[in-house]
């Protein structure tokens, strides 16, 4: 039996009815065996990060308890993305999508394997992930960086706002 681990998932969407998609994605995750959704952050409207020539995103974070391994959890996330008809034009990094699920934190694990990096390598520099993370886990720590609250304090935040 795997122990139960607390994990945080980042949800994002900027195509279609993004807020609806996020609500449905949380439901879909909660119905998977080995995953219990404990809390969901507020939803935020956030300007696109990385590639700015695309619509604003809606972002949120879900706090889960899971008995799945990190690899199995990531596979579930990718399956839910596919279920929601994620549209990812070939080879486009950081482009628009109907649903993006990122494994942000898995307990205090540090994992660096092909196709699986935890904590999520961009978490500490993305206000759109850190701000909702602090809603569900105000004391969150990012292994290798320290308090999530400290990471957020140096970022530009004026345009991250709850829906
Ligand atoms: N912690 C993680 N969470 C989600 N995907 C991860 C993680 N670590 C590695 N990956 C890999 O990254 C791939 C997802 O790439 P994707 O195209 O969604 O990147 P992106 O969403 O454009 O950029 P970013 O990962 O910076 O948000 C997945 O196939 C997965 O194997
Ligand atoms: N605001 C915002 N920007 C992004 C997001 C996201 O979820 N929110 N996801 C991306 C994919 O890596 C790239 N840029």
TrEMBL record:
Pathway: Cofactor biosynthesis; tetrahydrofolate biosynthesis; 2-amino-4-hydroxy-6-hydroxymethyl-7,8-dihydropteridine diphosphate from 7,8-dihydroneopterin triphosphate: step 4/4. It comes from the Bacteria. Residues 93-104 form the 7,8-dihydro-6-hydroxymethylpterin-pyrophosphokinase domain. Its EC number is 2.7.6.3. Coiled coil: none annotated. Keywords: ATP-binding, Folate biosynthesis, Kinase, Nucleotide-binding, Transferase. The keyword Nucleotide-binding applies. InterPro entries: Hppk, Hppk_sf. Belongs to the HPPK family. Catalyzes the transfer of pyrophosphate from adenosine triphosphate (ATP) to 6-hydroxymethyl-7,8-dihydropterin, an enzymatic step in folate biosynthesis pathway. This is 2-amino-4-hydroxy-6-hydroxymethyldihydropteridine pyrophosphokinase. It comes from Pseudoxanthomonas japonensis. The gene is folK.
